[in-house]
């Protein structure tokens, strides 16, 4: 009888503990560690994004746009060599070219953009990715471009009529 009661209590105890662990009422030691690691990684990405944006902003007025150029000594870049250069300043390796950059990292919905995400646009052939910028928050992005009154790094509104119709996708590389 004593053996039966002891066995029953043990089985019930293990079952209750399993139920508590799977319900999340009691955290397993590794889940606390995983949550801390995830928080630290997100914080690290946010700090890195801030540094990347600061670097991009520091290049306003110093960089010229020229299609197909990646001249780090003279600060002459196209849009993708500019993002490549800025991200490299924080140890993030990007390939050169909007098409290849648009396949790096992971897809991000426009509604979930975070600072430091790459945004891809069509500025030539409709629907074809041929321009890249860096999302800086509050619906804005920084990019190296050329236009009627600009040649270099500018901040633009992603929600403007111009860019709303040109937006294609975004990628998170941090």
Automatic annotation (TrEMBL):
<protein>
    <submittedName>
        <fullName>NlpC/P60 family protein</fullName>
    </submittedName>
</protein>
<keyword id="KW-0645">Protease</keyword>
<keyword id="KW-0378">Hydrolase</keyword>
<comment type="similarity">
    <text>Belongs to the peptidase C40 family.</text>
</comment>
<dbReference type="GO" id="GO:0008234">
    <property type="term" value="F:cysteine-type peptidase activity"/>
</dbReference>
<keyword id="KW-0788">Thiol protease</keyword>
<feature type="signal peptide">
    <location>
        <begin position="1"/>
        <end position="27"/>
    </location>
</feature>
<dbReference type="InterPro" id="IPR038765">
    <property type="entry name" value="Papain-like_cys_pep_sf"/>
</dbReference>
<feature type="domain" description="NlpC/P60">
    <location>
        <begin position="46"/>
        <end position="174"/>
    </location>
</feature>
<dbReference type="Pfam" id="PF00877">
    <property type="entry name" value="NLPC_P60"/>
</dbReference>
<dbReference type="InterPro" id="IPR051202">
    <property type="entry name" value="Peptidase_C40"/>
</dbReference>
<dbReference type="InterPro" id="IPR000064">
    <property type="entry name" value="NLP_P60_dom"/>
</dbReference>
<keyword id="KW-0732">Signal</keyword>
<dbReference type="GO" id="GO:0006508">
    <property type="term" value="P:proteolysis"/>
</dbReference>
């Amino acid at each position: 009888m004593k053996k039966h009661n002891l066995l029953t209590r043990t089985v019930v105890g293990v079952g209750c503990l399993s139920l508590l662990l799977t319900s999340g009422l009691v955290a397993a030691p590794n889940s606390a560690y995983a949550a801390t690691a995830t928080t630290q990684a997100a914080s690290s990405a946010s700090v890195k994004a801030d540094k990347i944006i600061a670097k991009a902003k520091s290049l306003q007025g110093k960089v010229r746009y020229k299609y197909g150029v990646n001249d780090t000594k003279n600060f002459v870049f196209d849009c993708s060599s500019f993002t490549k250069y800025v991200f490299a300043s924080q140890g993030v390796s990007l390939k050169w070219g909007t098409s290849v950059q648009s396949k790096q990292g992971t897809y991000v919905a426009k509604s979930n953009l975070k600072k430091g995400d790459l945004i891809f646009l069509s500025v030539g052939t409709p629907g074809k990715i041929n321009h890249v910028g860096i999302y800086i928050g509050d619906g804005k992005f920084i990019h190296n471009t050329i236009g009627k009154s600009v040649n270099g790094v500018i901040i633009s509104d992603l929600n403007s009529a111009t860019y709303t119709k040109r937006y294609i996708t975004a990628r998170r590389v941090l």
